[in-house]
Amino acid sequence: MKTQALLALLAASICSVAAVPSPQDAANRKAGLRLIKTSPKGAPKWISEEEKIVQYAAHEIGFVDITDITDSQVLRALSADEDEDVFQARAVTYPTAVSKQAQANPLINLVSTTQPQSWMTTLTNYHNRYYRATYGTQAGTWLYNTLVSLVAVNPAITVTRFTHSFNQPSIIVKIPGNSTDLVIVSAHYDSTAGSTTARAPGADDNASGVVVLMEALRVLANNKFKGKDTLEFHFYGGEEGGLLGSAAVFANYKSTGKTVLAVVNQDMAGYSPSGKISIYTDYVDSALTAYVRVVATAYTGTTTADKCGYGCSDHASARSNGFPAAYVCDEVMKTATPYIHTANDALSTIMWPAILRHTKFTVAFLVEASYL
Ligand SMILES: *[C@@H]1O[C@H](CO)[C@@H](O)[C@H](O)[C@H]1NC(C)=O
Ligand SMILES: CC(=O)N[C@H]1CO[C@H](CO)[C@@H](O)[C@@H]1O
Ligand SMILES: [Zn+2]
Protein backbone atom coordinates (compact mmCIF):
# COMPACT_ATOMS: atom_id res chain seq x y z
CA MET A 1 0.00 0.00 0.00
CA LYS A 2 2.67 2.37 1.05
CA THR A 3 4.68 1.67 -2.02
CA GLN A 4 1.63 2.34 -4.15
CA ALA A 5 0.95 5.62 -2.41
CA LEU A 6 4.54 6.57 -2.88
CA LEU A 7 4.36 5.61 -6.54
CA ALA A 8 1.21 7.70 -6.94
CA LEU A 9 2.92 10.62 -5.31
CA LEU A 10 5.92 10.15 -7.53
CA ALA A 11 3.71 9.94 -10.60
CA ALA A 12 1.92 13.12 -9.56
CA SER A 13 5.19 14.95 -9.13
CA ILE A 14 6.48 13.67 -12.46
CA CYS A 15 3.30 14.99 -14.09
CA SER A 16 3.62 18.40 -12.56
CA VAL A 17 7.25 18.55 -13.59
CA ALA A 18 6.24 17.62 -17.13
CA ALA A 19 3.97 20.66 -17.30
CA VAL A 20 6.97 22.94 -16.75
CA PRO A 21 9.06 23.48 -19.91
CA SER A 22 11.98 21.03 -20.00
CA PRO A 23 15.55 22.15 -20.69
CA GLN A 24 15.12 20.56 -24.13
CA ASP A 25 12.04 22.75 -24.75
CA ALA A 26 14.02 25.81 -23.76
CA ALA A 27 16.85 24.79 -26.09
CA ASN A 28 14.41 24.19 -28.96
CA ARG A 29 12.85 27.55 -28.39
CA LYS A 30 16.24 29.23 -28.28
CA ALA A 31 17.18 27.53 -31.56
CA GLY A 32 14.12 29.15 -33.14
CA LEU A 33 12.13 25.92 -33.48
CA ARG A 34 8.34 26.09 -33.25
CA LEU A 35 6.00 23.77 -31.35
CA ILE A 36 3.05 22.64 -33.45
CA LYS A 37 -0.04 20.46 -32.98
CA THR A 38 -1.73 18.69 -35.88
CA SER A 39 -4.50 16.89 -33.98
CA PRO A 40 -6.34 17.20 -30.67
CA LYS A 41 -4.84 14.14 -28.99
CA GLY A 42 -1.44 13.75 -30.68
CA ALA A 43 1.66 15.04 -28.92
CA PRO A 44 2.91 18.43 -30.15
CA LYS A 45 6.19 18.51 -31.99
CA TRP A 46 9.14 20.87 -32.51
CA ILE A 47 9.93 21.80 -36.13
CA SER A 48 11.61 24.66 -37.95
CA GLU A 49 9.84 27.68 -39.38
CA GLU A 50 10.64 26.55 -42.93
CA GLU A 51 9.29 23.03 -42.22
CA LYS A 52 5.95 24.50 -41.17
CA ILE A 53 5.49 25.99 -44.61
CA VAL A 54 7.23 23.33 -46.74
CA GLN A 55 6.00 20.18 -45.02
CA TYR A 56 2.67 21.21 -43.55
CA ALA A 57 1.03 24.26 -45.14
CA ALA A 58 2.11 23.20 -48.65
CA HIS A 59 0.58 19.75 -48.12
CA GLU A 60 -2.70 21.02 -46.72
CA ILE A 61 -1.94 19.61 -43.27
CA GLY A 62 -3.74 21.80 -40.75
CA PHE A 63 -1.73 22.76 -37.69
CA VAL A 64 -1.70 25.19 -34.80
CA ASP A 65 1.57 26.81 -33.69
CA ILE A 66 1.32 26.67 -29.88
CA THR A 67 4.86 27.90 -29.10
CA ASP A 68 3.65 31.14 -27.57
CA ILE A 69 0.37 29.93 -26.05
CA THR A 70 0.69 29.91 -22.25
CA ASP A 71 -2.99 29.83 -21.15
CA SER A 72 -3.58 26.27 -19.89
CA GLN A 73 -7.32 26.54 -20.57
CA VAL A 74 -6.61 27.37 -24.22
CA LEU A 75 -4.12 24.50 -24.46
CA ARG A 76 -6.75 22.15 -23.05
CA ALA A 77 -9.29 23.45 -25.57
CA LEU A 78 -6.81 22.79 -28.38
CA SER A 79 -6.72 19.16 -27.21
CA ALA A 80 -10.51 18.79 -27.36
CA ASP A 81 -12.31 16.82 -30.05
CA GLU A 82 -14.01 18.55 -32.96
CA ASP A 83 -17.52 18.33 -31.47
CA GLU A 84 -16.62 18.82 -27.81
CA ASP A 85 -18.23 21.85 -26.18
CA VAL A 86 -15.15 23.15 -24.45
CA PHE A 87 -16.47 26.22 -22.63
CA GLN A 88 -19.99 25.40 -21.54
CA ALA A 89 -20.91 28.58 -19.72
CA ARG A 90 -21.97 30.49 -22.81
CA ALA A 91 -25.39 32.07 -23.01
CA VAL A 92 -25.96 33.33 -26.55
CA THR A 93 -29.34 32.35 -27.96
CA TYR A 94 -29.42 32.76 -31.72
CA PRO A 95 -32.61 33.44 -33.69
CA THR A 96 -34.09 30.65 -35.81
CA ALA A 97 -35.19 33.03 -38.58
CA VAL A 98 -33.98 36.27 -40.16
CA SER A 99 -35.88 39.48 -39.40
CA LYS A 100 -33.92 42.46 -40.74
CA GLN A 101 -34.44 42.14 -44.50
CA ALA A 102 -35.90 45.64 -44.75
CA GLN A 103 -32.63 47.05 -43.45
CA ALA A 104 -30.24 44.54 -45.02
CA ASN A 105 -31.59 44.33 -48.59
CA PRO A 106 -31.00 47.96 -49.62
CA LEU A 107 -27.40 47.63 -48.36
CA ILE A 108 -26.93 44.32 -50.16
CA ASN A 109 -28.04 46.01 -53.39
CA LEU A 110 -25.05 48.35 -53.11
CA VAL A 111 -22.50 45.52 -53.10
CA SER A 112 -20.34 45.30 -56.24
CA THR A 113 -17.17 43.61 -57.47
CA THR A 114 -15.58 46.78 -58.88
CA GLN A 115 -13.42 47.61 -55.89
CA PRO A 116 -12.83 43.98 -54.88
CA GLN A 117 -11.27 43.42 -58.34
CA SER A 118 -8.87 46.27 -57.86
CA TRP A 119 -8.00 45.29 -54.25
CA MET A 120 -7.48 41.69 -55.31
CA THR A 121 -5.10 42.85 -58.06
CA THR A 122 -2.98 44.73 -55.54
CA LEU A 123 -2.95 41.89 -53.01
CA THR A 124 -2.01 39.21 -55.54
CA ASN A 125 0.74 41.39 -57.04
CA TYR A 126 2.85 41.08 -53.88
CA HIS A 127 5.42 38.34 -54.56
CA ASN A 128 3.90 36.64 -51.53
CA ARG A 129 2.37 37.79 -48.26
CA TYR A 130 4.48 35.57 -46.02
CA TYR A 131 4.16 36.96 -42.51
CA ARG A 132 7.90 37.07 -41.81
CA ALA A 133 8.90 38.54 -45.17
CA THR A 134 9.14 42.19 -46.20
CA TYR A 135 6.35 41.53 -48.72
CA GLY A 136 4.04 40.42 -45.93
CA THR A 137 4.75 43.61 -44.02
CA GLN A 138 4.23 45.74 -47.14
CA ALA A 139 0.88 44.05 -47.77
CA GLY A 140 -0.07 44.88 -44.17
CA THR A 141 0.83 48.54 -44.65
CA TRP A 142 -1.19 48.72 -47.85
CA LEU A 143 -4.17 47.02 -46.18
CA TYR A 144 -4.05 49.34 -43.16
CA ASN A 145 -3.85 52.50 -45.30
CA THR A 146 -6.61 51.30 -47.62
CA LEU A 147 -8.92 50.49 -44.71
CA VAL A 148 -8.26 53.89 -43.14
CA SER A 149 -9.30 55.69 -46.32
CA LEU A 150 -12.24 53.34 -46.83
CA VAL A 151 -13.82 54.26 -43.49
CA ALA A 152 -12.86 57.96 -43.46
CA VAL A 153 -16.44 58.71 -44.48
CA ASN A 154 -17.59 57.76 -40.96
CA PRO A 155 -15.39 59.14 -38.13
CA ALA A 156 -17.03 56.75 -35.62
CA ILE A 157 -15.17 53.83 -37.23
CA THR A 158 -11.67 52.98 -35.98
CA VAL A 159 -8.83 51.04 -37.64
CA THR A 160 -6.16 49.55 -35.35
CA ARG A 161 -2.99 47.59 -35.91
CA PHE A 162 -2.63 44.64 -33.53
CA THR A 163 1.11 43.99 -33.48
CA HIS A 164 2.72 40.57 -33.08
CA SER A 165 6.10 39.02 -32.33
CA PHE A 166 6.52 38.83 -36.13
CA ASN A 167 6.47 41.92 -38.36
CA GLN A 168 3.10 41.53 -40.05
CA PRO A 169 0.34 43.02 -37.87
CA SER A 170 -3.27 41.91 -37.69
CA ILE A 171 -5.67 44.75 -38.44
CA ILE A 172 -8.98 45.38 -36.65
CA VAL A 173 -11.74 47.69 -37.87
CA LYS A 174 -14.51 48.57 -35.43
CA ILE A 175 -18.00 49.97 -36.11
CA PRO A 176 -19.26 50.91 -32.64
CA GLY A 177 -22.83 49.97 -31.78
CA ASN A 178 -25.03 50.88 -28.83
CA SER A 179 -23.52 47.98 -26.88
CA THR A 180 -19.86 46.95 -26.62
CA ASP A 181 -20.79 43.28 -27.20
CA LEU A 182 -18.95 42.14 -30.31
CA VAL A 183 -19.95 40.49 -33.56
CA ILE A 184 -16.82 39.66 -35.55
CA VAL A 185 -16.16 38.69 -39.16
CA SER A 186 -12.63 37.62 -40.10
CA ALA A 187 -10.20 36.56 -42.82
CA HIS A 188 -6.42 36.23 -42.98
CA TYR A 189 -4.35 38.23 -45.44
CA ASP A 190 -1.02 36.42 -45.39
CA SER A 191 -0.17 33.84 -48.07
CA THR A 192 2.45 31.17 -48.74
CA ALA A 193 2.98 28.58 -51.45
CA GLY A 194 5.45 25.79 -50.85
CA SER A 195 8.28 27.68 -49.15
CA THR A 196 8.86 30.90 -47.27
CA THR A 197 10.25 32.61 -50.38
CA ALA A 198 8.06 31.18 -53.16
CA ARG A 199 5.71 33.25 -55.29
CA ALA A 200 2.30 33.05 -53.60
CA PRO A 201 -0.41 35.22 -55.16
CA GLY A 202 -2.92 33.69 -52.68
CA ALA A 203 -5.95 34.89 -54.64
CA ASP A 204 -8.55 32.46 -53.34
CA ASP A 205 -6.45 31.68 -50.22
CA ASN A 206 -7.26 34.06 -48.86
CA ALA A 207 -7.26 37.44 -50.56
CA SER A 208 -10.81 36.51 -51.53
CA GLY A 209 -11.95 36.54 -47.90
CA VAL A 210 -10.16 39.86 -47.38
CA VAL A 211 -11.84 41.67 -50.29
CA VAL A 212 -15.23 40.28 -49.24
CA LEU A 213 -14.82 41.88 -45.82
CA MET A 214 -13.52 45.12 -47.36
CA GLU A 215 -16.51 45.44 -49.69
CA ALA A 216 -18.98 44.72 -46.87
CA LEU A 217 -17.18 47.35 -44.78
CA ARG A 218 -17.29 49.88 -47.65
CA VAL A 219 -21.07 49.56 -47.92
CA LEU A 220 -21.72 49.71 -44.16
CA ALA A 221 -19.34 52.65 -43.68
CA ASN A 222 -20.76 54.68 -46.59
CA ASN A 223 -24.25 54.27 -45.19
CA LYS A 224 -23.22 55.10 -41.61
CA PHE A 225 -24.53 51.77 -40.40
CA LYS A 226 -24.78 51.48 -36.62
CA GLY A 227 -26.17 48.38 -34.94
CA LYS A 228 -27.10 47.46 -31.41
CA ASP A 229 -23.89 45.43 -31.09
CA THR A 230 -20.41 46.55 -32.07
CA LEU A 231 -19.13 45.09 -35.34
CA GLU A 232 -15.49 44.19 -35.89
CA PHE A 233 -13.66 43.20 -39.06
CA HIS A 234 -10.49 41.21 -38.35
CA PHE A 235 -7.71 40.83 -40.92
CA TYR A 236 -5.20 38.36 -39.48
CA GLY A 237 -1.51 38.03 -40.15
CA GLY A 238 0.40 34.76 -39.75
CA GLU A 239 -2.46 32.32 -40.39
CA GLU A 240 -0.34 30.12 -42.64
CA GLY A 241 2.23 29.90 -39.84
CA GLY A 242 -0.27 28.05 -37.63
CA LEU A 243 -3.04 30.59 -36.84
CA LEU A 244 -0.59 32.96 -35.14
CA GLY A 245 -2.38 36.29 -35.61
CA SER A 246 -5.81 35.09 -34.53
CA ALA A 247 -4.36 33.22 -31.52
CA ALA A 248 -2.82 36.44 -30.20
CA VAL A 249 -5.92 38.54 -30.87
CA PHE A 250 -8.31 36.12 -29.13
CA ALA A 251 -5.89 35.54 -26.22
CA ASN A 252 -6.05 39.31 -25.71
CA TYR A 253 -9.87 39.31 -25.93
CA LYS A 254 -10.05 36.46 -23.41
CA SER A 255 -7.70 38.08 -20.91
CA THR A 256 -9.45 41.44 -21.16
CA GLY A 257 -12.87 39.81 -20.71
CA LYS A 258 -14.51 40.97 -23.93
CA THR A 259 -18.02 39.72 -24.70
CA VAL A 260 -18.09 38.14 -28.14
CA LEU A 261 -21.46 36.99 -29.48
CA ALA A 262 -20.23 35.56 -32.79
CA VAL A 263 -17.09 35.09 -34.87
CA VAL A 264 -17.60 34.16 -38.52
CA ASN A 265 -14.36 33.34 -40.31
CA GLN A 266 -14.32 33.38 -44.11
CA ASP A 267 -11.33 31.98 -45.88
CA MET A 268 -11.60 31.29 -49.55
CA ALA A 269 -14.58 33.00 -51.04
CA GLY A 270 -13.69 33.11 -54.72
CA TYR A 271 -13.86 29.64 -56.25
CA SER A 272 -17.16 27.82 -56.29
CA PRO A 273 -18.19 25.45 -59.07
CA SER A 274 -21.28 24.54 -57.03
CA GLY A 275 -22.37 28.17 -56.71
CA LYS A 276 -23.29 27.58 -53.07
CA ILE A 277 -21.85 28.85 -49.81
CA SER A 278 -20.37 26.04 -47.74
CA ILE A 279 -20.73 26.06 -43.96
CA TYR A 280 -18.21 23.92 -42.12
CA THR A 281 -19.22 21.86 -39.11
CA ASP A 282 -16.06 20.71 -37.29
CA TYR A 283 -14.26 22.67 -34.54
CA VAL A 284 -17.04 25.26 -34.51
CA ASP A 285 -19.89 26.33 -32.24
CA SER A 286 -22.89 24.31 -33.38
CA ALA A 287 -25.54 26.86 -32.29
CA LEU A 288 -23.80 29.74 -34.11
CA THR A 289 -23.24 27.50 -37.13
CA ALA A 290 -26.98 26.75 -37.27
CA TYR A 291 -27.68 30.50 -37.16
CA VAL A 292 -25.11 31.21 -39.91
CA ARG A 293 -26.90 28.60 -42.04
CA VAL A 294 -30.25 30.31 -41.43
CA VAL A 295 -28.85 33.68 -42.56
CA ALA A 296 -26.90 32.31 -45.54
CA THR A 297 -29.90 30.32 -46.76
CA ALA A 298 -32.31 33.23 -46.40
CA TYR A 299 -30.08 35.64 -48.33
CA THR A 300 -28.14 33.44 -50.80
CA GLY A 301 -30.13 30.21 -51.20
CA THR A 302 -29.21 26.59 -50.50
CA THR A 303 -25.92 25.95 -48.73
CA THR A 304 -23.57 22.97 -48.56
CA ALA A 305 -21.63 21.59 -45.58
CA ASP A 306 -18.29 19.91 -44.96
CA LYS A 307 -15.46 19.44 -42.44
CA CYS A 308 -11.97 20.81 -42.90
CA GLY A 309 -10.01 19.27 -40.03
CA TYR A 310 -7.76 20.37 -37.19
CA GLY A 311 -6.18 23.84 -37.39
CA CYS A 312 -7.93 24.52 -40.69
CA SER A 313 -8.29 28.25 -40.20
CA ASP A 314 -8.60 31.11 -37.73
CA HIS A 315 -12.01 30.18 -36.28
CA ALA A 316 -10.07 27.54 -34.30
CA SER A 317 -8.35 30.34 -32.34
CA ALA A 318 -11.66 31.98 -31.44
CA ARG A 319 -13.05 28.64 -30.32
CA SER A 320 -10.02 27.64 -28.24
CA ASN A 321 -10.30 30.95 -26.38
CA GLY A 322 -13.93 30.26 -25.52
CA PHE A 323 -15.71 32.36 -28.16
CA PRO A 324 -18.51 31.03 -30.41
CA ALA A 325 -17.03 30.59 -33.90
CA ALA A 326 -18.23 29.46 -37.32
CA TYR A 327 -16.45 28.86 -40.61
CA VAL A 328 -17.85 29.76 -44.01
CA CYS A 329 -16.07 28.81 -47.22
CA ASP A 330 -16.74 28.96 -50.95
CA GLU A 331 -16.93 25.24 -51.66
CA VAL A 332 -16.82 21.77 -50.14
CA MET A 333 -13.33 20.24 -49.87
CA LYS A 334 -13.69 17.81 -52.78
CA THR A 335 -14.43 20.46 -55.37
CA ALA A 336 -12.42 23.27 -53.76
CA THR A 337 -9.86 25.25 -55.73
CA PRO A 338 -7.11 22.97 -57.04
CA TYR A 339 -4.69 25.91 -56.89
CA ILE A 340 -4.49 26.37 -53.12
CA HIS A 341 -0.98 27.03 -51.75
CA THR A 342 0.56 27.15 -55.23
CA ALA A 343 1.73 29.89 -57.56
CA ASN A 344 -1.40 29.18 -59.62
CA ASP A 345 -3.78 30.51 -56.97
CA ALA A 346 -4.06 33.55 -59.24
CA LEU A 347 -6.44 36.41 -59.90
CA SER A 348 -7.47 34.78 -63.20
CA THR A 349 -8.97 31.77 -61.39
CA ILE A 350 -11.30 33.85 -59.24
CA MET A 351 -15.03 33.36 -59.83
CA TRP A 352 -16.49 36.80 -59.19
CA PRO A 353 -20.07 35.60 -58.61
CA ALA A 354 -18.72 33.73 -55.58
CA ILE A 355 -17.12 36.91 -54.21
CA LEU A 356 -20.42 38.73 -54.71
CA ARG A 357 -22.36 35.94 -52.97
CA HIS A 358 -20.05 35.96 -49.94
CA THR A 359 -20.14 39.76 -49.70
CA LYS A 360 -23.94 39.75 -49.72
CA PHE A 361 -23.93 37.08 -47.04
CA THR A 362 -21.47 39.12 -44.96
CA VAL A 363 -23.56 42.30 -45.13
CA ALA A 364 -26.70 40.32 -44.29
CA PHE A 365 -25.04 38.53 -41.40
CA LEU A 366 -23.64 41.74 -39.91
CA VAL A 367 -27.00 43.53 -40.11
CA GLU A 368 -28.94 40.56 -38.67
CA ALA A 369 -26.37 39.69 -35.99
CA SER A 370 -25.95 43.31 -34.92
CA TYR A 371 -29.27 42.80 -33.11
CA LEU A 372 -28.16 39.70 -31.15
C1 LIG B 1 -29.23 52.79 -30.44
O1 LIG B 1 -29.59 53.77 -29.50
C2 LIG B 1 -30.32 54.88 -30.06
C3 LIG B 1 -30.49 55.92 -28.98
O2 LIG B 1 -31.05 55.35 -27.83
C4 LIG B 1 -31.62 54.36 -30.62
O3 LIG B 1 -32.35 55.42 -31.22
C5 LIG B 1 -31.33 53.30 -31.66
O4 LIG B 1 -32.53 52.73 -32.13
C6 LIG B 1 -30.47 52.22 -31.10
N1 LIG B 1 -30.07 51.32 -32.18
C7 LIG B 1 -30.23 50.00 -32.15
C8 LIG B 1 -29.89 49.29 -33.36
O5 LIG B 1 -30.62 49.40 -31.17
C1 LIG C 1 -4.70 27.56 -43.90
C2 LIG C 1 -4.89 28.65 -44.78
O1 LIG C 1 -4.13 28.59 -45.63
N1 LIG C 1 -5.81 29.53 -44.80
C3 LIG C 1 -7.09 29.09 -45.01
C4 LIG C 1 -7.65 29.65 -46.24
O2 LIG C 1 -8.85 29.05 -46.40
C5 LIG C 1 -8.85 27.66 -46.49
C6 LIG C 1 -10.25 27.27 -46.63
O3 LIG C 1 -10.43 25.97 -46.43
C7 LIG C 1 -8.24 27.00 -45.34
O4 LIG C 1 -8.03 25.64 -45.61
C8 LIG C 1 -6.99 27.61 -45.07
O5 LIG C 1 -6.64 27.13 -43.82
ZN1 LIG D 1 -3.82 28.64 -46.94
UniProtKB/TrEMBL annotation:
GO terms for biological process: proteolysis. Its cofactor is Zn(2+). Keywords: Aminopeptidase, Disulfide bond, Glycoprotein, Hydrolase, Metal-binding, Protease, Signal, Zinc, Zymogen. Residues 1-19 form the signal peptide. Residues 171-364 form the Peptidase M28 domain. Its EC number is 3.4.-.-. Coiled coil: none annotated. It is an enzyme of class 3 (hydrolase). Pfam families: Peptidase_M28 (PF04389). One of its GO terms (molecular function) is metalloexopeptidase activity. Monomer. Belongs to the peptidase M28 family. M28E subfamily. Extracellular aminopeptidase that allows assimilation of proteinaceous substrates. This is Peptide hydrolase. It comes from Podospora anserina (strain S / ATCC MYA-4624 / DSM 980 / FGSC 10383) (Pleurage anserina). The lineage of its organism: Eukaryota, Fungi, Dikarya, Ascomycota, Pezizomycotina.
